[in-house]
């Protein structure tokens, strides 16, 4: 190789790498100088003002201890560059980065003193290892202390609990109940193996081999509590047993959860599995106040636990998931939670079948034996405590459900309520409860004769509720004959449709939202509406062809047109059939209100019912015109509460049954008003004024209270399967329902029966027995209350369909005159906002209420009957449906037509 291609000689000091590492020089065997040093005098007395340079790491550390960290001086070689001879590649490597001077030695070297940049913040393996060992050691120490401090719980101690005392609204004691633990401890040998394996198969299939805890479940529960969410139950049978047995502390806290973990570990290590299983099944809550398998077997099947068959065992294992949602008798609640008898039966059967399938899968039951249990076992009445007889059981159920369903507000959970120790002050008025029960029994005893008329008078049921419009407080309910015999609370959800008592919501929607503009597109029509006056005119024609708001004929998904019928297939005011909304409400004309609902929009009718206080879960589909005439099934409580909104001039107060709760430490909960404006006073007061006409001289005259203003509405449903009267005064709103329902405990399907002929009447209307009960109760409930008038309504809205109608042809029943007169022209109804009992005129004459004389130009009823005029107005009552023939209605108890 030629000379000029030889590599240049390497710089002294071993080059850059050697200078970086401080390794021995390749030529001399000496260690390379530290960065910034060349060995020349200039390096020792550098130009940076330093007195000397640091010769190595040890020297740099010692210098740092004296004067803090100092940067080693840079040197400049002859070439004018840093690094000494040879320029950048010189022994000092140009940038002057010096080894960090050492400080005082620390026990934990973090941040690391001998590293730069991000490496300075990376912990060493020694530090990581030390921390891990320390952390694990701490956990072991804590676990050891926790394990030593906890005791194995004794199931028998959980039988100790306190009563809950319930009070009437006047502060007197209603009943003390709930603290008695219904439990009988049985031995492991008395527990059927099918019951043990039903629980194991469904809850914890590794029970017989696991350690007693589920780390994933524990982590999930702790995480949820740390977030402030709901805690979860123990994931293993051992953990659930521990949870049940620790009744002395039911608080949902992290400390309690950790205590449960330690107890579960100790129980799993020291207690035999047979004892754990027996303890769990002797302490678990199965619903119906039954703690433990023996009590549950008696509560559901009235037999000893060792007599249970595999199907019954699988059924009871489903109750462990929460009897509220699995007890086929259903759950009573002020706010429906989906725990109806039908829904619970479906859930219980599904869970039972799943358990049996898993028992076969895991080898605990033969397929042949499993095939025997495809339906729910026969179960019995859920209530037997004699102290809860009559209406008391329904009242207690209602108060308990209110507390539990609103536990976020009340701070009273089902577990805490089971533990007892509460003083629960209800809103129930002792006198009003007795008066409502007496009114129902009077009608039952005098009219319902199941022995004489078994085909029509069996399975007759009544329900009722009374609410204070000013507060929403439930003053009284009628839940059924006896809470220990009939366990469904008829004041709550029963499934009975409300019929024409739903029409006031249609009228309120028309006043609040208005009808849609038929000249605009659908989207624009939703925004540009016309508020409706009760003087607006609609058709009272029977079998009316129902139209959409834009005039097109409504058809269902199959293209079928809807023809709305009136009760008895009677038309009103032929040949024009025009009738204003006040008259249509007074006579309960279906066709007028079905068409009004279509013009407003059924979505707005639904929204209005919700605003008034009806619950969404009780509303039927709003996709059909009949929605406006009551295919929904709100409870008596909710109907009374919704009408109370009208009574309170639009102020809505949700119904409630508990005013306050106390325990040994003081007040736990106090009710606070949740009033909001559902309607303006103009809307609500005009609805009241129209409903006042219904009672003054319409289908609701049976409910009149002499000397006291009353507003209300009758309701009868298709097939005559239910009848209602809902009415109110300014101080009290009450709903009464009547229906026939065979809800025997083991019925697979609740079936509503027709009421034609029931009580000796051709047909049951809202104006018959329901209105009679309402009248008798309200007369007593308000006998000492001052008489208060309803607010005077202000005129509202625009008269819809106000075009003049052609003069009708006189009918053959026209009153003859002594001298020729022109053809009579019907007088159009133009009621004022506050008509008197006799100043509202229909199209064919004026109405006179009461008396045995003539009404207008026509004949009056025996006690103040139908409209007078050239053509007597047909007797009209309400009924949902699409065209079934119905019988004519009879006069009410105090005159007028039935509703």
TrEMBL record:
Sequence segments annotated as region (Disordered): 1-110, 444-465, 796-899
Biased composition (Gly residues): 77-93, 848-868, 889-899
Entries under SUPFAM superfamilies matching the protein: beta-lactamase/transpeptidase-like, Lysozyme-like
InterPro entries per record: Beta-lactam/transpept-like, Glyco_trans_51, Glycosyltr_51/Transpeptidase, Lysozyme-like_dom_sf, PBP_transglycosylase, PCN-bd_Tpept
Ranges where the Glycosyl transferase family domain occurs: 175-331
Lineage, uppermost ranks: Bacteria, Bacillati, Actinomycetota, Actinomycetes, Kitasatosporales
Spans through the membrane: 127-150
The entry's keywords: Carboxypeptidase, Glycosyltransferase, Hydrolase, Membrane, Multifunctional enzyme, Protease, Transferase, Transmembrane, Transmembrane helix
Annotated catalysed reactions: Preferential cleavage: (Ac)2-L-Lys-D-Ala-|-D-Ala. Also transpeptidation of peptidyl-alanyl moieties that are N-acyl substituents of D-alanine; [GlcNAc-(1->4)-Mur2Ac(oyl-L-Ala-gamma-D-Glu-L-Lys-D-Ala-D-Ala)](n)-di-trans,octa-cis-undecaprenyl diphosphate + beta-D-GlcNAc-(1->4)-Mur2Ac(oyl-L-Ala-gamma-D-Glu-L-Lys-D-Ala-D-Ala)-di-trans,octa-cis-undecaprenyl diphosphate = [GlcNAc-(1->4)-Mur2Ac(oyl-L-Ala-gamma-D-Glu-L-Lys-D-Ala-D-Ala)](n+1)-di-trans,octa-cis-undecaprenyl diphosphate + di-trans,octa-cis-undecaprenyl diphosphate + H(+)
Biased composition (Low complexity): 20-42, 826-847, 869-888
Name of the molecule in the record: Penicillin-binding protein
Record's keyword annotation contains Isomerase: no
Domain Penicillin-binding protein transpeptidase: 467-734
Biased composition annotated in UniProt, kind: Basic and acidic residues: 49-62
